[in-house]
Design a protein that fits this description.
Blueprint lengths: L8 E9 L3 H12 L5 E3 L26 H14 L3 E3 L5 E3 L5 E4 L4 E9 L3 E3 L15 E2 L2 H4 L7 E5 L3 H10 L5 E5 L9 H8 L4 E4 L2 E8 L3 E8 L5 E5 L2 E4 L3 E3 L29 E3 L11 H24 L2
Helix pairs in contact: 1-2, 1-6, 4-5
The structure holds NADP nicotinamide-adenine-dinucleotide phosphate (NAP).
Length: 317
């Protein structure tokens, strides 16, 4: 008799892990190849792009489009051709032998091929107070939390595109937005720099790092250190928005496929990982571009190669 605790096993040709632009573009291409792919969405439906207020650089939308709306359109298009989108998360993956297995909290799947598009997570500052004040003044998403800072003074940490884009968005709510950057030159692109420098609500603190986040019920201040002079100051603020880059979500795959020194998945020019029939696309395998368009392109390419892989598998039967 089957063990009551044993999970049901569902067999699939192709499972896609993740539902950001890479995952949903892969789903669209795989669905149109009649593979009826299953997408396990992961915790962040539609990925990081869905937390972006407005996406202005995805072709076809000259006026820009909101992240959530673009995510919904991607999903609807994939579903129209037969992709199954399951709001569930892989918690264990076995890539040692085929068929590969994927477990979620309630289910177990076997798949002949996988496309990993698990994306990346906001990097943490790892300073005292950061963890304690998440949801009480510390945030990694302006679109999600900006509204709570109406008329408040906030700081943004980072000097890249995300810091400036989110900082600009936060000026809609906040009284002042102070961008704290560890160098004296921004990494962000020229358009965002120009917008930030000409916004009267935004000011900059250069050559400075946050060494502690201080508060009681909520954030009240940050401790700052000037990296050139070593001078320490306390800077009063109601909120700390942290945009200092991302780390790839590759925990599930460690020791099973090859990762680079920063733990991004290594892929060949056909998006294939070191495990045959396991492909990766989007930010989990791309430390360089991380754009909606590049992720979607990688997803489409991965699906085309997965289709070829499955065809060849069928031929050698
Ligand atoms: P990023 O480009 O890696 O920038 C991270 C920023 O945080 C850098 O300025 C970095 O300083 C700083 N930083 C890193 N670790 C730090 C630490 N421990 N303490 C203090 N500061 C730290 O990351 P991102 O801004 O999230 O952008 C990621 C990718 O997405 C980029 O390719 C970007 O172009 C793209 N993106 C594009 C858009 C757009 O096109 N509109 C919008 C958002 C993101 P240093 O400069 O000194 O290294």
């Amino acid at each position: 008799m089957a063990n009551q605790n044993e999970k049901l096993v569902e067999k699939r040709d192709l499972i896609i892990l993740g539902s950001g632009p890479a995952g949903l573009a892969a789903a669209l291409y795989a669905a149109r190849a009649d593979l009826n792919p299953l997408i396990l969405t992961g915790m962040t439906l539609h990925g990081q792009a869905s937390t972006t207020d407005i996406i202005e650089n995805y072709p076809g939308f000259p006026e820009g489009i909101s992240g959530p709306e673009l995510g919904q359109l991607f999903q609807a298009q994939a579903e129209r051709f037969g992709a199954d989108v399951e709001m569930d998360q892989a918690i264990k993956v076995d890539l040692e032998k085929t068929p590969y297995t994927v477990e979620t909290y309630g289910k177990k799947y076997e798949a002949k091929s996988l496309i990993i598009t698990t994306g990346a997570t906001s990097r943490k500052l790892n300073v005292p107070g950061e963890k304690d004040f998440v949801g009480r003044g510390v945030s990694y998403c302006g679109t999600c939390d900006g509204w709570f800072f109406k008329g408040k003074d906030i700081v943004v940490v980072g000097g890249g595109d995300s810091a400036l884009e989110e900082g600009l968005f936060l000026t809609r709510f906040a009284n002042t937005v102070t961008i704290i950057h560890r160098r004296d030159a921004l990494r962000a692109g020229a358009i965002l720099q120009n917008r930030a420098f000409s916004n009267p609500k935004i000011k900059f603190i250069w050559d400075t790092v946050v060494t502690e986040i201080i508060g009681d019920d909520a954030v009240k201040a940050v401790k700052l250190e000037n990296v050139k002079t070593g001078e320490e100051t306390i800077y009063n603020t109601n909120g700390v928005f942290i945009f200092i880059g991302h780390d790839p979500n590759t925990e599930l795959f460690k020791g099973q496929i090859e990762l680079d020194e920063s733990e991004y998945i290594l892929i060949d020019k056909h998006m294939e990982t070191s495990a045959s029939g396991v492909f990766a696309a989007g930010e989990v395998a791309d430390p360089d571009f991380r754009q909606v368009i590049t992720s979607a392109g990688m997803g489409a390419a991965a699906a085309m190669r997965a289709t070829r892989y499955l065809e060849e598998l069928e031929e050698t039967k």
